[in-house]
Write a structure and sequence with these properties.
CATH superfamily: DNA polymerase III subunit chi
Shape: globular
CATH architecture: 3-Layer(aba) Sandwich
Largest sheet: 8 strands, mixed
Number of domains: 1
CATH topology: Rossmann fold
Helix content: 25-40%
CATH class: Alpha Beta
Order of helices and strands: EHEHEEEEHEE
Strand content: 25-35%
Radius of gyration: 15 Å
Strand order of the largest sheet: 3-4-2-5-6-1-7-8
């Protein structure tokens, strides 16, 4: 599985993630976003709805109806199986419960976003990187925010 770590250092997740989701949506990638809790889910949902002034990125949550029709689903459940929209891209905004390197997530790609200004998020990302780099079958890449966007390190 391709796993990308996105190190946020200049903008909050509510600004950075909608830009990535816009590209994923344009490429018809069905997506599940794993959020830490309901308040962070609601904040991300609001940011996604308001990201494009002349349009929007369609999405819903696991608590809503017609989940199978949503190209992007947000939830607070650990993503052990694909949700109703058959997501092939997992995006995590928290490391809660995601440290098991032997577990095979049923996704083609996994993007983990973490705030480099928060010590716990940075430590969790380092732990995940070390654990996942020892497991077989994963291709890990690290991306950091720069003045012009994202730089692969």
């Amino acid at each position: 599985m391709e796993i990308r770590f996105y190190h946020l250092s200049r903008t909050p997740i509510t600004k950075a993630l909608p830009q990535i989701l816009d590209k994923a949506y344009e490429r018809s990638l069905l997506t599940y976003i794993y959020c830490a809790d309901k308040p962070s889910l609601q904040g991300l949902s609001k940011a996604i709805w308001s990201h494009k002034p002349q349009g929007f990125i369609p999405h819903g949550s696991l608590e809503e109806t017609h989940r199978e029709r949503q190209p992007i689903l947000l939830g607070c459940s650990i993503p052990t199986e694909r949700p109703e929209n058959k997501a092939n891209l997992l995006i995590s905004t928290t490391a809660n419960g995601l440290f098991d390197a032997d577990y095979q997530f049923p996704y083609d790609q996994w993007f983990h976003f973490f705030d480099g200004n928060e010590a716990k998020a940075l430590d969790d990302a380092r732990t995940m990187w070390k654990s996942l780099s020892k497991a077989s079958g994963h291709e890990l890449t690290y991306w950091q925010q720069s003045d012009t966007g994202w730089a692969k390190k």
